[in-house]
Structure formats: C-alpha cells, structure tokens
UniProtKB/TrEMBL annotation:
It comes from Thermosediminibacter oceani (strain ATCC BAA-1034 / DSM 16646 / JW/IW-1228P). [4Fe-4S] cluster binds at residues 12, 93, 187. Signal peptide: none annotated. (2E)-4-hydroxy-3-methylbut-2-enyl diphosphate binds at residues 40, 71, 121, 159, 215-217, 259. This is 4-hydroxy-3-methylbut-2-enyl diphosphate reductase. The chain holds residues 1 to 291 of 672 of the full protein. The lineage of its organism: Bacteria, Bacillati, Bacillota, Clostridia, Thermosediminibacterales. The active site is at residue 123. Catalyzes the conversion of 1-hydroxy-2-methyl-2-(E)-butenyl 4-diphosphate (HMBPP) into a mixture of isopentenyl diphosphate (IPP) and dimethylallyl diphosphate (DMAPP). Acts in the terminal step of the DOXP/MEP pathway for isoprenoid precursor biosynthesis. The gene is ispH.
Amino acid sequence: MQIIVAENAGFCFGVKNAVRLLEDLIKKREKTYTLGPIVHNQQVVEKMENLGVKAVDLDDISEGNLVIRTHGVPPDVIEQARQKGLNVIDATCPFVKKVQKLARDISEKDCTVVIIGDPNHPEVKGIKGWCPGEAVVIENEEDARKFFTDKRVGVVVQTTQTEENVKKIMDILKEKLDLAFFYNTRCNATHQRQKAAKKVAESVEVMLVVGGKNSSNTKKLAQVCQNVGAKVYHIETADEIKKEWFRGVEKVGITAGASTPDWIIKEVISKMEEISREMENQQGEVAYEDG
Ligand code: F3S
C-alpha cells in the first residue's frame, strides 16, 4: 500500500506563532490563560494545560496574562479584559486581523457587511463584532438565496472557507445585490492546504484527514477531499485508525489541518506504515499458500 502525505499538512503560520508565544510565556513562568482553547485541537490544548496554561472565560479570572487566540475576538472583549486589569496578549492571526479591519472599514462606509462563513465559529463572531453597522453571515447557497438588502454591500470571507463555496455564494449575490466591495480573504495557508489535499485525494482511494473535529479548516479539508471522490476518514489521533478501512486499498493519502501538531501527523504516518507492512506480509503469506 502506497502512503502519500500532502504538502503543507499541519501547523500554519498563525498557529505556529500563537503556540510559540504561549511556550515563551510558559518558560517565563508567568500566570497565563487563553480565552477559550488556543486552537481547535484537543491534544494541543491538553498539552498546554499540562504545562499550566488553562483555557478560560473572561468571567473566570481576575489577574495574569490573557492570550487571545488565533481566531480573534470583538474589540469590546479586549476592552473588558483590560478593564479587569488583565495583561492582554493578542495572538490573533494577522490574516484574521486583516479581515476584521476590512469588515470595519466597509461598515464605516455605511455598507452592510456580508461575511461568508460559519455563523457559530469564533472567527466569524469576532469579525462581526468589529462592524459598527449591520453585518450578516452567509454560510451556504440557501442563505445567499434568502438574503436581500437594497443597501450597498461589502463582502469578506472567513479565512478557512473553500474557494468552491465562496464562488457559489458570490454567483448568487452578484445577481441581486449592490456589491460595492468584495475581498476574498481566504488565507494563503488555507489555499495551499486545500490545493495540496485535493491533488493527493484525486490520486488515492482513501484519504485520512487529521485534526480537531471542531476545527473549521480541518473539516473543510475533508470536504475538499470528499468532493473529488476519495473515501475520507476525519481522525484526531492515530488511535482512531482501523485496519479494515484499507482492505483492497492500494493508495492512501494523508493531510492535516492547520491546527494539527507535527507529533500527531508523525504518529499517523507510522501507524499507516505499520498497517501497510502487516498487509503486505499477509498478502505474501497468501501468495505462498497458493503457490
Ligand atoms: Fe491564520 Fe490562516 Fe492559520 S488565518 S491561523 S494562517 S489558517
């Protein structure tokens, strides 16, 4: 069985920065918290907790460093934290900050802001919070068909969206709205990971997508691979892999979300190598018996 690992799998620039920042604070032995889980990956969050960094809500603490995660937050949350006397350290990814700023600028031009994204995702809630005026979230074609306003509209995009979803939604919006601005703010890391995952998925029968079940960018990677016809298993760790998934399979692809650490990807690769060896040995035995 051939195992192909997609390029650009794993930690993106924004997540690397945030994790490095936390590790520096841990070394300094300062009392540090993160506002919610630092990234959508349970194993990274547990590792940080073991090193003394807890994920909290604003109401839970009254002193120490409060690290804002890569997804960002609305400005009033930062203000509230400062007023409580917390030392706010902003690890919002610069690409998310750019979307927040664009959304605010559009809103200040008296346009309705449309955010293409998941309304329940913290990044999208954060972006919405930066708009002083009306902001609407559109997740899919159905939302796009239902939405109408006669005001001028500016569109931004959640950084982890697929190009396909953005295009489908924009095709609908372009037909009926007064579109003053459109910023396709998918980040480059998303673009590269989805492109590389698609390329591998097109050439394999089974694709393992490794990352948090609550991670938006990992779920989108799984979607991209499914769309090209691969059988996809979204797993968080190597322990979830089942040997029967690979019966009769010749090629397996592996990719991982932007919040999946290297050590988990390595464990998945070694488990797959082990399964591949076992299957080859079994095939060898059958060949011998037949002979
Ligand atoms: Fe930033 Fe993109 Fe990663 S927005 S956190 S570089 S997925």
